[in-house]
Amino acid sequence: MSTESNPADSNRTDSNKGLLGTLLALFDIRNVIGALLSIYGIILLLMGLFGDPEVEKTGGPNANLWAGIVLLVIGAIFIAWGVLKPVVPDAPHPGDKE
Fold first, then answer.
1. Cα 93 vs. chain centroid, distance in angstroms?
2. C-alpha–C-alpha distance, residues 11 and 57, integer Å
């Protein structure tokens, strides 16, 4: 096995960057899910901090506060996953017709 890199592979990754790569990274499902979970987490966190805790209904713990914290953590994990492992589109092959 050779450890040399193939120049065609480096050209392919360079050509994948651009508008398509940016759009794919922006609208990656991991980023969308992470953003939605984070928004819901912020809302629940604020309701847990500033709203009526309603401890009688939950038996003690502030359910909105803890659910908001958990949703923020999971949303952050999804966003970090999308940033650390971005989507890289395949380069179009010369023989392919669009």
1. 29
2. 60
Q: What is the pLDDT of residue 42?
A: 98
Q: Around Cβ 60, how many Cβ atoms within 10 Å? A: 8
Whether residue 70 is predicted with pLDDT greater than 80 in this model: the reply is: yes
What's the rounded Cα separation, in Å, for the pair 32 and 50?
Answer: 27
Which residues, in sequence order, are CB contacts of 91 under 8 Å at separation 6+? 12, 15, 16
Give tens-digit pLDDT for 28-44.
899 999 999 999 999 99
Q: At what angle do helices 29-50 and 63-84 cross, to 10 degrees?
A: 160
